[in-house]
């Protein structure tokens, strides 16, 4: 492909609205263009990368025995109402009405549609197991679209859905998809971790996220520094610590009130009392479905609302507003504490039980209690794992210290069980002629998000550095002093030979200065550059640059083809 024939509208400066590296570089390199917030056009180079990612996914999914389908993006509300998700999904669901005023949505996912298909077509265990997948555009009305392809309102996703006769077969399918995902992400050249995760709105009994490690990641990953345990901080298990013994109460000082004028936040109270945040106990009130609960966590910890929701087995969980806090505690927001809370269930994180004494709110303006002890000065109904993991917490498997990294989610696998098949009455006849619900799994990959994640991991100050498996081209041939006939002839000969060998090659034929060509080549991130110049050519040589390492090597012109064939094969 000749550079001058391709639509590559590169930019010299960083767009002002691009916050992260991948967004900036894809715009500057002419890979994508913004249409509206969270909505992008893929230009020729971007589409070449997208197709490369899709092809790897197809190859691995087909090898694993999955079959490709194409389901409609436009879905009727009736199917979503069967599972209750029409109401549960919230404002992220893109809802539309047709000319007859019937409700539809633009699909963010396809559990309902695929379950409806299978319940109408599959009746016997002899037709199982079944695993169907698609690669399709999805839609989510993100409240704050950001980071280019990382969090958009329209994006490309691979979603697969498995149907098995029993839980053991479903576990085997799940494990097969888990291993398939490992191969996919290795082939696209990503440094990733598979982590335990919360099932979220999709639901199910267990799930794993595949996270690309990058500083710009939106998620925190807790992983062990010794064993292979890793989990999203929302899911990371935390151990119960040894607590303050009740027999020590007799030795402890009595609780007393202190004045803390205008001090509400943890930082303000700790600075005023000259204490560390570990000495303070936060009391947070939540509306859990139809009741109010109080949750206690140490001052340096944060409540994990997902864990809390699971602990309480509730659907709706929101932080209580100021009016509710005042009604329940009889005091203003910012001074809440567990002492004398009446008819309120009090839950505390495990770490609270290990605190010998604490500073707590006194449910009075400008007042806190010091030396407050659980079990003596206030009661706790339930201790549980209710907080986010932090660096240094003990691994739940081997008790070594956990470390926290940032990650970008690029894939997610779910063991759904019978959540959807029971809700939608999707069943089959087993060997004994008995009606049973399908046991399901679902498996998603953010196809367009992989592009952004790959750049976040592979770039330098000059531009992108694509893994060769998904690069738009493997090689760029750059003639300099191209007005000299020998240079241009040699460059075209190399280009033709590489193309005939099946190596995707871009020929830089523009009438630009050498500096412009080199800068654009680095920006576009094509793995190898072959520079043909008069001086080297007189010695029968050309210069080959490895974009990843920056290493430049002069090699004989008649060895270029074999050299690059070997390089492309090894990467």
Query: Helical residue percent?
Result: 25-40%
User: Under the CATH scheme, which architecture of the largest domain would be assigned?
Assistant: 2-Layer Sandwich
Strand content: 25-35%
End-to-end C-alpha gap = 22 Å
* Envelope shape: globular
Total strands: the figure is 31
CATH class of the largest domain: Alpha Beta
CATH superfamily of the largest domain: Bira Bifunctional Protein, Domain 2
CATH topology of the largest domain: BirA Bifunctional Protein, domain 2
Number of domains: 3
Query: Which class do the helix and strand fractions yield?
Result: alpha+beta
Tell me about the biggest sheet? 9 strands, mixed
Low-pLDDT segments:
none
Q: How large, in whole angstroms, is the Cα Rg?
A: 29 Å
Helix segment tally: 16
Question: Can you describe this structure?
Answer:
The chain is of the alpha+beta class. The chain folds into 3 domains: 16-73 and 117-237 and 404-456, BirA Bifunctional Protein, domain 2, CATH 3.30.930.10; 246-384, YbaK protein, CATH 3.90.960; 473-570, Rossmann fold. It is 27% helix and 29% strand. It is built from 16 helices and 31 strands. The strands form 8 sheets. Strands 3, 7, 8, 9, 10, 11, 12, 21 and 24 form a 9-stranded mixed sheet that branches. Strands 16-14-15-17-20 form a 5-stranded mixed sheet. The radius of gyration is 29 Å and the shape is globular. The relative contact order is 0.14.
């Amino acid at each position: 492909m000749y550079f001058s024939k391709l639509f590559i509208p590169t930019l010299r400066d960083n767009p002002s609205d691009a916050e992260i590296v991948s967004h900036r570089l894809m715009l500057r390199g002419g890979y994508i263009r913004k249409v509206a917030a969270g909505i992008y056009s893929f230009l020729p180079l971007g589409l070449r990368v997208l197709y490369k990612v899709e092809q790897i996914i197809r190859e691995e999914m087909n090898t694993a025995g999955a079959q490709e389908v194409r389901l409609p993006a436009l879905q009727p509300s009736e199917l979503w109402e069967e599972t209750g998700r029409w109401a549960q999904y919230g404002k992220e669901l893109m809802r539309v009405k047709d000319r007859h005023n019937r409700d539809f949505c633009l699909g963010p996912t396809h559990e309902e549609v695929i379950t409806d298909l299978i319940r109408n077509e599959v009746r016997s265990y002899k037709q199982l197991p079944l695993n169907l997948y698609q690669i399709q555009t999805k839609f989510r009305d993100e409240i704050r679209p950001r980071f280019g392809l990382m969090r958009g309102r329209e994006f490309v996703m691979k979603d697969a859905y498995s149907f098995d006769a029993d839980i053991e077969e479903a576990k085997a399918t799940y494990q097969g998809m888990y291993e398939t995902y490992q191969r996919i992400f290795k082939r696209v050249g990503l440094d990733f971790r598979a982590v335990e995760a919360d099932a979220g709105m999709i639901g199910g009994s267990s799930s794993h996220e595949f996270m690309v490690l990058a500083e710009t990641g939106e998620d925190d990953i807790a992983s062990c520094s010794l064993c292979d345990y890793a989990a999203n901080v929302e899911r990371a298990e935390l151990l119960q610590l040894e607590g303050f013994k009740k027999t020590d109460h007799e030795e402890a000082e009595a609780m007393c009130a202190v004045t803390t004028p205008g001090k509400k936040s943890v930082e303000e109270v700790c600075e005023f009392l000259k204490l560390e945040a570990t000495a303070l106990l936060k009391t947070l009130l939540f509306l859990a479905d139809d009741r109010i609960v109080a949750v206690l966590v140490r001052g340096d910890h944060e409540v994990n609302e997902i864990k809390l929701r699971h602990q309480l087995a509730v659907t709706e969980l929101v932080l209580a507003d100021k009016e509710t806090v005042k009604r329940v505690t009889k005091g203003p927001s910012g001074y809440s504490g567990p002492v004398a809370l009446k008819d309120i269930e009090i839950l505390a994180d495990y770490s609270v039980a290990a605190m010998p004494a604490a500073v707590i709110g006194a449910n009075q303006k400008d007042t806190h209690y010091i030396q407050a002890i659980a079990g003596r000065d206030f009661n706790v109904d339930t201790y549980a794992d209710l907080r986010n993991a932090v660096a240094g917490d003990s691994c739940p498997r081997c008790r070594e210290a956990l470390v926290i990294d940032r990650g970008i989610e690029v894939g997610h696998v779910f063991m759904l069980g019978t959540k959807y098949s029971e809700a939608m009455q999707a069943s089959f006849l087993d060997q004994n002629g008995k009606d049973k619900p399908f046991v399901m799994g679902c498996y998603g990959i953010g196809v367009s998000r992989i592009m952004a994640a790959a750049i976040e991991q592979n770039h330098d100050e000059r531009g992108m550095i694509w893994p060769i498996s998904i690069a738009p081209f493997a090689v760029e041939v750059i003639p300099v002093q191209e007005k000299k006939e020998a240079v241009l002839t040699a460059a075209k000969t190399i280009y033709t030979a590489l193309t005939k060998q099946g190596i995707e090659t871009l020929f830089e034929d523009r009438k630009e200065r050498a500096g412009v060509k080199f800068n654009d080549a680095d920006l576009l991130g094509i793995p190898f550059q072959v520079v043909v110049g008069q001086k080297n050519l007189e010695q029968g040589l050309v210069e080959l640059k490895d974009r990843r390492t920056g290493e430049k090597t002069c090699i004989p012109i008649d060895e270029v083809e074999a050299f690059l064939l070997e390089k492309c094969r090894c990467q």
